[in-house]
Amino acid sequence: MGHGEVLARGTAMEGDCLSCIKYLMFVFNFFIFLGGSFLLGVGIWVLVDPTGFREIVAANPLLFTGAYIILALGGMLFLLGFLGCCGAIRENKCLLLFFFMLILIIFLAELAAAILAFIFREHLTREYFTHELKRKYQGYNNTDVFTSTWNAIMTTFGCCGVNSPEDFEDSLFRLMNPNDVVPEACCQRNDHPGDGAHISREECLMGSMLFRNNKGCYSAVVDYFETYIYLAGALAIVVLTIELFAMVFAMCLFRGIQ
């Protein structure tokens, strides 16, 4: 076998490998594009829905913030998938380089967020949240972001305070509302208006255990998300791995394009 034939076969194999990477990258980014389009659609629908869902979201700061996060994530994935598909199928070095840089920035941002979360994990203790609640929570001032967020958490999870309703003793809330033992967000809500089980707001505000939520929000939130913690960790590892492979594929294709 001559040197020219070996060289030709090597070039052919290299071309086949490059073609394989090209189509793998296209398929991979097409699914990213579809996922981004879906999230964009959901985010836009939530914000402009004329049937009243928008008002529900707007009234709840957690849902309102979540809708914008979905919108931003969908837009980012849409752009990534589009750049990856176009760069791969057109073999455009400029688009591939932009795609690589964008994924690299996202990858580094996620890595930085994970490191910061590990460093500042001591701030996610019961003591820290209790101290902040006592110092900043105002009760009925929904123009204050801290207060409105806590109201949304207590209403959504059916809880009161960080550890229990007693967290409001010697707090800013009691100084501002001396006649209320707990805020209205702690009061139990009647989910079935026709069954006769009326919830007394007045009794709740006076501190009656029968009409208020007695579970602390720290336990309520941890219990709610406990089943998702390991899933979220596994998903984060999968996402980071996919991003690494995407960067490798993009750079291989970039270097292989003549």
**Low-pLDDT regions:** 1-10, 193-198
Strand content: under 5%
How far apart are the termini? 27 Å
> What's the alpha carbon Rg, rounded to whole Å?
26 Å
Helix fraction by DSSP (H/I, runs of at least 4): over 70%
Report the structural category: mainly alpha
Q: Return the average pLDDT rounded to an integer.
A: 76
Main sheet properties: none
Please state the overall shape, judged from the principal axes of the Cα atoms.
elongated
Series of secondary-structure elements, N-terminal to C-terminal: HHHHHHHHH
- Tally the beta strands: 0
* Tally of helical segments: 9
Task: Name the features.
single chain, 258 residues, mainly alpha, 9 helices
Descriptive account of the structure:
The chain is mainly alpha-helical. The chain has helices at residues 3-48, 53-59, 61-90, 93-119, 126-136, 145-157, 172-176, 201-205, 217-256. Helix content is 71%, strand content 0%. Helix 1 (3-48) runs antiparallel to helix 9 (217-256). The protein starts with a helix and ends with a helix.
Summed up, what is this model?
It is built from 9 helices and no strands.
Topology summary:
Elements lengths: L2 H46 L4 H7 L1 H30 L2 H27 L6 H11 L8 H13 L14 H5 L24 H5 L11 H40 L2
Helix pairs in contact: 1-3, 1-9, 2-3, 3-4, 4-9
